[in-house]
Amino acid sequence: MLATALSFVGQQYPQATGEDFTGHHVASYVRGELANAIRDALGTKSSSYIVKGSAGQSTWAAVPWASIFDPLVTSGAQTGYYVVYLFASDGKRVFLSLNQGATAVEREFGRGRRDSVLRDRAALMRARLPEFLEGFDLPAIDLASTANLPLGYMAGHALGKAYEITSLPSEADLRSDLEHILHAYSALTFRGGLEPSPEAGALDEDVPPGSSVIETRQYKFHRRIDRHPQASRMAKQHHGTRCQGCGLSFGERYGTLGEGFIEAHHLKPLSSLKEGETFQYDVKKDFAVLCSNCHRMIHRTSDSSDLEAFKKLLVTA
To answer: Are 41 and 2 in contact (CB under 8 A)?
Structure first.
């Protein structure tokens, strides 16, 4: 039960941090039982996400957490944006938060500018999700800690809810909140994530001229799926590395430099990509492998999901 797991961590963690970290059952609980409770709450959607819990590495974290990562966005808490349960260091509250990776921001902008950049990006996230603010209108979180990582979590928070550990909502309400914030997570990705809006008149070779806002979002989301590392790896394992459009083998053309190189192309029609839906795929049916030229060209056709029609357009020398 999600409520049981959240309550256990909130009540047990503060005392546990005064004891030896190695092999401690509370740290194991955060990594195991808490993460499993979240997977159980996700139900059939759990396979679409990566779920991780952490109480620290080699020593206690000031703030324990359990995160849900969309592989299209990130696979860990250092980069991108994600949904996370963050426990206040005093154990009194747990926050359900749409948050972002502070480590990558600190690496790029430095510690001094990190939090201001995170707050600016959190404002962009909220601006892209106005209809979700009614249920998750929590503009700031207080993790009762002045440690570096918790300060980053607090600056990176975009929207969410706060729960008192001693009076958690019902299991049904906790699961409903989780489902709702994951809908916001998926919607944010579809709407551009953390990427700034393109300037008026700016060209984007991935997007046909004259595309509507929804069509532009569909094209960009489609390209995000194309570039998904796991999907690309599995597509190559199933389809090989010879272009299914023109037949080019990078290994044959470029020798050892090109061996194993090919690009994955998502075959589902753009119109089928809906905002807020979790992405699931069948590598055999939903992906093809294409060389770089064919991949760019198929995206210029009226239906980038129709590989056979694209092949008929190829001009043979």
So the answer is: yes
Of residues 270, 266, 199, the one with CA closest to residue 227: 266
Contact present, 153 and 86 (Cβ < 8 Å): yes
Secondary structure in 3-state letters for the chain: CHHHHHHHHHHHHHHHCCCCCCCCHHHHHHHHHHHHHHHHHHHHHHHHCEEEEECCCCCCCCCCEEEEECCCCCCCCCCCEEEEEEECCCCCEEEEEEEECHHHHHHHHCHHHHHHHHHHHHHHHHHCCHHHCCCCCCCCCCCCCCCHHHHHHHHHCCEEEEEEHHHCCCHHHHHHHHHHHHHHHHHHHHCCCCCCCCCCCCCCCCCCCCCCHHHHHHHHHHHHHHCCHHHHHHHHHHHCCECCCCCCEHHHHHHHHHCCCCEEEECCCHHHCCCCCCCCCCHHHHEEEECHHHHHHHCCCCCCCCHHHHHHHCCCC
Burial profile 41-78: b = 16 or more Cβ within 10 angstroms, e = fewer: bbeeebebbebbbbbbeeebbbbbbbbbbbebbbbebe
d(CA 180, CA 160): 10
Q: What is the pTM of this model?
A: 0.74
Where does CATH 3.30.920 sit in the chain? 1-191
The 10s digit of each residue's pLDDT in 65-96 is 999 999 889 999 999 999 999 999 999 999 99
Domain 1-191 has CATH 3.30.2010: no
CA Rg value for the chain = 22
Enumerate residue ranges in the chain where pLDDT < 70.
197-231, 268-283, 316-317
Q: Quote the crossing angle between the two packed helices 171-190 and 213-226, to the nearest 10°.
A: 100
Q: Cα angle vertex 287, ends 317, 47, to 5°?
A: 165
